[in-house]
Specification:
With 76 residues, the chain is mostly helical. It has a domain at 25-63. The chain contains three helices and no strands. It has helices spanning 2-8, 13-47, 50-61. The longest helix has 35 residues, at 13-47. 0% of the residues are buried. This is Septum formation initiator. Pfam families: DivIC. InterPro entries: FtsL/DivIC.
């Protein structure tokens, strides 16, 4: 009976193995999320540059510099 409890009880070997697998999966997910955070920080930093702001203004809002002619090409 003690052997079964040691294997399948709340603190048994099977529970321990299941928790180790879950822990490993959580560590992998944490590492992936840390990479996402680092990438997003880099994107935010780059988006604050004047060149990036100008690019968005030109591409998304059709802004232009004084003296420039704007051509809008539409695809059908």
């Amino acid at each position: 009976m003690a052997l079964l409890w040691g294997l399948f009880g709340d603190y048994g070997v099977v529970s321990r193995i299941r928790l180790e697998v879950q822990h490993h999966l959580l560590l992998e997910r944490h590492a992936a999320l840390e990479q996402d955070i680092a990438l997003n920080r880099q994107r935010v930093h780059q988006a604050r540059t004047p060149e990036a702001v100008e690019k968005v203004a030109r591409e998304k809002y059709n802004f232009r510099k004084p003296g420039e002619t704007l051509f809008i090409l539409r695809q059908h």
